[in-house]
Amino acid sequence: MAPMKFNSWGLPEVNHDTMQTSENWVFCGGDLAGMANTTVESVNDGKTAAWFMHKYMQSLHKAAVPDTPKLPMFFTPIDLVDTSVEICGLKFPNPWGLASATPTTSAPMIRRAFKEGWGFVVTKTFALDKDIVTNVSPRIVRGTTSGHTYGPGQGAFLNIELISEKTCAYWCQSVKELKADFPDFIVISSIMCGYSKDDWTVLAKRAEESGADALELNLSCPHGMGERGMGLACGQNPELVLNICRWVRAAIKIPFFAKLTPNVTDIVDIARAAHQGGADGVTATNTVSGLMGLKGKGNAWPAIGKEKRTTYGGVSGNAIRPIALKAVSAIARALPGYPILAAGGIDSAEVGLQFLHAGACALQVCSAVQNQDFTLVEDYNIGLKALLYLDSLDVTADWDGQSPPTLRHQKGKPVPKVADIVGKSLPSFGPYLEKRIKLNAENKKQSDLLAEAEMPEKQRPVPAPKKAAPSVKEMVGRALKSIGAYGDLDNTQQVVALIDEEMCINCGKCYMTCNDSGYQAIEFDPETHLPRITKDCTGCTLCVSVCPIIDCITMVKRETPYNPNRGVPLAVAVS
To answer: What is the DSSP track for 57-89?
Structure first.
């Protein structure tokens, strides 16, 4: 390590402001620098070192560097992809927006969101002064639908928060100021009233006069407001939705969207009512009513006051994504071309694209921001640009979004097919693993590792697009043609499971689930722990669903006719 200087602990002497060592061109951080005690501190060391490394290299060439640390971005064709979208005559810079919820609690928060790049926001729902609310606490809790998972991987939230505690006057003034300062971004005012024509007319006009680009009618809040005859108390009845939308349509000229509740038998009936009432579109969906969990002594959480009382709240996040996807696709199939703003478990570019494919034209986010912050939008928008760009390349036809096909591997490392070397498969544990390692080593000794066949796939030149990257609008509804009734499915096209023994880690998960929850179609070798699919496989895909190794089990075409095991022979013939 010479000529670097070391301290008495045997660690490099480091300037902890710049992470620079005694040698100007050597930087150090994390444990080696002797200061970081946590992962967060180590990450900060890395960011600090990266900035001062950049600054040092620029100084070698007498290049100017700004005082505020900001590493330069690189430019690719992906940056040229346009993610703007037009909805109801409004030009959205991108389809990513903040839902009417905690992230839009105040005007300063919305300002920060616009500065980070969100294309639109829906304000926290506000009402007339006579309907003002005061929240209880605690009221927003971690979801437990996927275990006690913390951080960005958290699957859900439950909240019993009401609409905005701020007045209509506050929001009207805020919207006016926001539109003056951010004219190119879309501001949608969310409003709520009871079942009163006069109230809806007055509030809608005030919101329009404030300069909002559009309105969202909150007909779906699942807790608290329904007891007042507001929220889902109106939104669960198609007739009430129809009339409210007619009242608002007669009162204003700007577009408005009805925010629908998933807590109904058929959300399409509600969407049709909004459409017939003159709503320019709908938002699908609000939160799902639920009780998140009970503690060991029978107390619920959140628990209010010394009595520890609770109520049913709104579940949000990934836990409700399947419900929201169904709602969006069902409405899009029933009302082709009708604008839908999607909400419910959107936490990545890939998930956003799923909702676009299902028929949404813009995407509202809440829980993912609660898990992190407003900066998510940069990842989301760049990710969507990348997905649209990949759609223009022929070489990515077999990819799943940004994920190429999974190569055969063990613990992430490519593996040869041992069966091709010794004529039989070997598991990956104990003495079998030792034998695999020896066989692979011998095979490599006898192979020409510099042969063309052994070379990694060429990455240059970069594949050129064969067509222009599609627009966001072209993605809308792409999946609808393949979504339909059960009766449309063809039960003559059957599949069966196929296990790649080279990728199998011999955990037995597929065997256990098939044996006790499936069709007893997997045999498990007691010695080698290698699973084998039998002729009894019905193609249920349960084994794929629980296998911890991606693509270790795949579903392939069934080559023989499928004759279900009826238990007792049928009394009549069935074609």
So the answer is: HHHHTT----SS--PPP---GGGG----EEETT
- pLDDT tens digits, one per residue of 83-121: 999 999 999 999 999 999 999 999 999 999 999 999 999
Rounded to 10 deg, the angle between the 107-116 and 168-181 helix axes is 30
Give the contacts of 499 (CB within 8 A, at least 6 positions apart).
Answer: 510, 531, 532, 533, 543, 552, 553
| CB 203 within 8 Å of CB 193 | yes
Task: State the Cα angle at 195 between 192 and 201, rounded to 5°.
Answer: 65
Please give the single-letter amino acid code of residue 338.
Y
Report the residue count for the chain. Answer: 575
**pLDDT tens profile 349-394:** 999 999 999 999 999 999 999 999 999 999 999 999 999 999 999 9
Q: Is the CB of residue 340 less than 8 Å from the CB of residue 307?
A: no
Spatial contact of 155 and 317, defined as CB atoms under 8 Å apart: yes
CA distance 328 to 286: 12
CA dihedral (229, 232, 234, 236) in degrees, to 10, reads -140
Residue 566 is encoded by which pair of tokens?
């009826």
Q: Which residues are the active-site residues?
A: 221
Other CB atoms within 10 A of residue 449 CB: 9
Q: How far apart are CA 384 and CA 94, in angstroms?
A: 10
Cα distance between residue 450 and residue 444, in whole Å: 11
Q: What are phi and psi of 218, to 5 degrees?
A: -80, 100
Calpha distance 257→275 (Å, rounded): 9
